[in-house]
Automatic annotation (TrEMBL):
PANTHER family: DEHYDROGENASE, PUTATIVE-RELATED, MEDIUM-CHAIN SPECIFIC ACYL-COA DEHYDROGENASE, MITOCHONDRIAL-RELATED. One of its GO terms (biological process) is fatty acid beta-oxidation using acyl-CoA dehydrogenase. GO terms for cellular component: cytoplasm. Residues 84-164 form the Acyl-CoA oxidase/dehydrogenase middle domain. This is Acyl-CoA dehydrogenase-like protein. Keywords: Oxidoreductase. Gene3D superfamilies: Butyryl-CoA Dehydrogenase, subunit A, domain 2 (2.40.110.10). GO terms for molecular function: acyl-CoA dehydrogenase activity.
Length: 333
């Protein structure tokens, strides 16, 4: 077992607090942030495993994940390549290639979306969510499909499937159209937050030195203010999730708002740390340099301005007012 995989399994020995919306969401996101602050890739893999547990529970399979396993969630659906599912007796088999598979050669199991091709011309294809044992014959990580320097260790390349047995858990819509999908997305933002805090650590430490320059302290103060606001946002959102866990529309809006803010916060901290400290830490501190590279790639799971545009669209679609997201509901604004 690689050192990275060993570290992930060590973290898995301590389960997360209750699933989102069950009263301990803030503690859950705090732990995700703490793990990712220690090692960004470990946090990324741990979060996906925890999400698989939550997805299984939401879809009626609470015993899906067993001790000693490491699950990925491989649900990217670009136009190409395509992974297809075919009925095989009483079950299903998967064939084709799945892109963007974090932990491609590390995970023992995965939740995977695949397309069921129509039986007749003019019929629509259907997407389903499957559970797959990755030790099955026919599962092959595709080499040279993950070239990122940041998050290199996450092993997020393509995986080839050749008539691999799989268990259908529900439709793609069952996976997407649930509050837990969006709560999980905020959990990813908690991981970004933890990684951003770790990137800021050298800047905050240097700013505390007696002879630190006013310019360095200004950058540190701005970074600290942003991190303070970021954790306040995660904490208040966690309380809102626990208070109204099944409100799908609000969960979607919350996810877009929180992920947008933490994405921009992380980018700002990367920028301020570099501007304040210069090239020294990036050139001579291997851990810091890797954290910066990892976080730069990790936050691109956020869809940037696309998500920002989606936020008011979600509110309009579901008849929600801005005060339900950004205010306290009083009409005195």
């Amino acid at each position: 077992m690689t050192d990275l995989l060993h570290e992930v399994h060590e973290q898995l020995h301590t389960p997360l607090p209750e699933l989102p919306g069950r009263g301990e969401t803030q503690a859950r996101w705090r732990r995700l942030a703490g793990i990712t602050a220690q090692n960004t890739v470990v946090g990324r893999l741990y979060e996906a495993h925890a999400d698989a547990v939550a997805i299984g529970t939401d879809l009626g399979y609470p015993e899906l994940v067993s001790a000693g396993e490491l699950w990925g969630v491989w649900a990217a659906e670009p136009p190409m390549p395509v992974l297809t599912a075919t009925r095989s007796g009483a079950g299903w088999t998967l064939s084709g290639t799945k892109p963007w598979c974090s932990g491609a050669s590390l995970c023992s199991h995965a939740l995977v979306t695949a397309t069921v091709l129509p039986d007749s011309p003019g019929a629509a294809a259907q997407k389903l969510l499957f559970a797959v044992n990755l030790s099955s014959p026919g599962v092959t990580p595709v080499p040279e499909t993950w070239h990122a320097v940041g998050m290199a260790a996450s092993d997020s390349g393509w995986v080839s499937f050749e008539q691999v047995p799989a268990t259908a858990l529900g439709t793609h819509a069952d996976y997407l159209e649930r509050s837990g999908f969006w709560h999980g997305g905020i959990g990813v933002a908690a991981c970004w937050y933890g990684a951003a805090r770790a990137v800021a650590a050298p800047l905050l430490s240097r700013a505390a030195a007696p002879k630190a320059s006013s310019l360095l302290r200004a950058h540190a103060g701005a970074a600290a203010a942003g991190l303070t606001a970021g954790w306040a946002l995660l904490s208040s959102t966690a309380r809102a999730v626990d208070a109204d866990p099944h409100n799908l529309a609000l969960a979607k809006a919350q996810a877009f708002a929180v992920r947008t803010y933490i994405d921009r916060l992380a980018a700002e901290i990367i920028d301020r740390s570099g501007r304040a400290l210069g090239p020294g830490p990036l050139a001579s501190d291997a851990i810091h340099a890797q954290r910066v590279a990892d976080l730069s790639v990790y936050i691109r799971q956020c869809h940037a301005e696309t998500d920002e545009a989606a936020l008011p669209a979600v509110l309009a679609e579901h008849g929600l007012g801005w005060d339900q997201l950004i205010g306290d509901g009083h009409d005195t604004w």
